[in-house]
Amino acid sequence: MSDINVLFVLSSLGGGxxxxxxxxVVSALHGQGFNFSLALMKNEGVYFEExxxxxxxxxxxxxxxxxxxxxxxxxxxxxxxxxRLKPEVVLSFLWSCNIRAILAKFFSFSKxxxxxxxxxxxxxxxxxxxxxxxxxxxxRFADKIIAVSEGVxxxxxxxxxxxPDRITTIYxxxxxxxIKKKAGEPLPAEFRNLSRPWVVSAGRLSYQKNYSFLLKAxxxxxxxxxxxTFIIMGKGEMEDELxxxxxxxxxxxxxxxxxxxxxxxxxxxxxxxxxxxxxxxGFPNVIVEAMATGVPVISTDCPSGPSxxxxxxxxxxxxxxxxxxxxxxxxxxxxxxxxxxxxxxxxGYKRAADFSLDKIIPQYRNLLESFGGKNK
Length: 376
Hints:
Strand content: 15-25%
Largest sheet: 7 strands, parallel
Order of helices and strands: EHEEHEHEHHEHEHEHEHEHEHEHEHHH
Number of strands: 13
Shape: globular
Helix content: 40-55%
């Protein structure tokens, strides 16, 4: 039987969680009964070097001599690409790509099966009415929807009236051996003289990740402990605003803005506690990644994902969103209680193994084979 041709639609190959998962899926399955092509809304990103050789990458922003708005050009280019490649399956990640993929399905009259993946709790993430209407209209025409957590699945059913039998939940896969390898690499020199203990967080400097809350909680922690460094890995549109907040809180000299780190794992491994303060998530990759490096994890119990990974006070700690007192208390507990700390590390490491490539990738394989086979 010939390989199933899959066109994978992504926003880019940037350093986000969705892109990381896409690279893992493509790397694991390409040439193993599947022939992948990538279509990118933006032809950029740090993961190009990790894409297996022989995979064709298409730029959906590329002009064709006709003056069109970028958003329309992407749909036109994707429609033409689907018509030309005639894939058995089109797989897309992220709601903005998903809408465009379903529009391309209409305009191309393609016989392909269209599988879309929702990566975020979109009722919180999508604010514009036209985007919500676009999701509500297009998602019903997908052949299957992958939700990255049960919380995302429930949100699609509750807020966007998606039929439950159209959705399957597949958690994100992680290359735990690669994480372990990178975690063992030497720390960059810039970190070696930062005062201990280290509280570390990672993610885009955006509203979703709620760093203002983390800074306030860390300021409370500093009043009690008077020691340590808060390391923030990430870039984003709120960087200047967050630095101003740190100054106003009087902790500017205790916060290290590390920017985007190609290898965050060695920093996680050498930290004392990892914190995530998000308003909302989908499936927060950084929780599993931090667990896999052997650092205790504290996260907000936000919708959705953290409570599906963390069992409170067994393999991590959950705190209410924006509760600075409870987050400060949890940080102090982890740092001052060796028995609790060791339990969280050991159980967190075991929990990370539940999301290994060999446990999750077969679920993608089975789904793609079931739909690809229907179109042979």
